[in-house]
């Protein structure tokens, strides 16, 4: 099976080489892993570092350059589309700053055997968050995952805002993010999780310890955090009239009643 790890970047020269090295050294039985970096006009040489890795590991590292900073959701949508076009059977998404432990992908690949999407969760047994994490990020994460998502969106995931995930090709195609997903900030993660639930995807969660970055600067400012809350609040209304979501909800109800 072909697994493509989609990694959005903007000025991540301090970590992207270490991440690529760790991913390429993973041993995943019966899985070929490739890396697709989606770079949003980095000014610190991130794209050039990725190109050097592509020369060092031909066929295993690719770079999608974008001329401007267009947002996290947009980067993932383009990255997913390229991965699907390249024949990916599995698509991973993860941060470039090493907050997401590359080694956790081994457990995620094992869990995907009987799931459509695997979420790496900070909030199930065995998971956790770095004590150095910014207060506003902790506040927004807890507010979203413990109150907003379960109450307003009725999603059973413990970490719907997390950005470390492994998808089956069929699940991404079912959601069709370029058409269905409107959030372009960190709300993108919640919208994808919500649609996966609405479309009756089989979801599993595995624990992960989220580390604070040691290089570069976090993209999650207070403004971004508040924007993410706004996006999350809009998700339910945005998809309430979706015929596809309605059919999925009906199908899920039928399955439960059997």
Write a structural description:
It is a single chain. By secondary structure, the chain is of the alpha/beta class. The protein has a single domain (2-251), classed as Alpha-Beta Complex (Spore Coat Polysaccharide Biosynthesis Protein SpsA, Chain A). The protein has helices spanning 16-24, 46-56, 72-85, 104-111, 135-153, 169-175, 177-180, 187-198, 222-239, 243-257, and strands spanning 2-9, 32-40, 61-66, 90-93, 117-121, 128-129, 165-168, 203-207, 209-210. The strands form 2 sheets. A 7-stranded mixed beta sheet has the order 3-2-1-4-7-5-8, with helices on both faces. β1, α1 (16-24) and β2 (32-40) form a beta-alpha-beta unit. The model is unreliable at 245-258 (pLDDT under 50).
Short description:
This protein is of the alpha/beta class. Helices cover 45% and strands 17% of the residues. The protein has helices spanning 16-24, 46-56, 72-85, 104-111, 135-153, 169-175, 177-180, 187-198, 222-239, 243-257; strands at residues 2-9, 32-40, 61-66, 90-93, 117-121, 128-129, 165-168, 203-207, 209-210.
């Amino acid at each position: 099976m072909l697994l493509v790890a989609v990694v959005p970047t903007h000025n991540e020269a301090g970590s992207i080489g270490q991440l690529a090295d760790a991913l390429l050294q993973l041993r995943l039985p019966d899985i070929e892993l490739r890396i697709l970096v989606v770079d949003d006009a980095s000014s610190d040489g991130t794209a050039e570092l990725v190109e050097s890795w592509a020369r060092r590991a031909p066929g295993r590292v690719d770079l999608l350059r974008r001329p401007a900073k267009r947002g996290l959701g947009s980067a993932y949508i383009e990255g997913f589309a390229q991965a699907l076009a390249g024949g990916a059977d599995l698509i991973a998404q993860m941060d470039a700053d090493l907050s997401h432990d590359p080694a956790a992908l081994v457990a995620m690949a094992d869990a995907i055997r009987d799931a459509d999407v695997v979420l790496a969760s900070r909030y199930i047994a065995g998971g956790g968050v770095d004590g150095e994490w910014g207060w506003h990020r902790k506040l927004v994460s807890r507010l979203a995952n413990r109150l907003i998502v379960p109450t307003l969106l009725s999603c059973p995931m413990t970490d719907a805002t997390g950005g470390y995930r492994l998808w089956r090709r069929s699940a991404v195609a079912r959601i069709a993010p370029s058409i269905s997903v409107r959030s372009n900030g960190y709300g993108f993660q919640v919208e994808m999780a919500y649609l996966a639930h609405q479309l009756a995807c089989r979801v599993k969660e595995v624990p992960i310890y989220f580390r604070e970055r040691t290089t570069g600067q976090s993209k999650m400012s207070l403004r971004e955090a508040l924007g993410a809350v706004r996006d999350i609040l809009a998700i339910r209304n945005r998809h309430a009239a979706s015929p596809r979501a309605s059919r999925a909800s009906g199908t899920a109800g039928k399955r439960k009643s059997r």
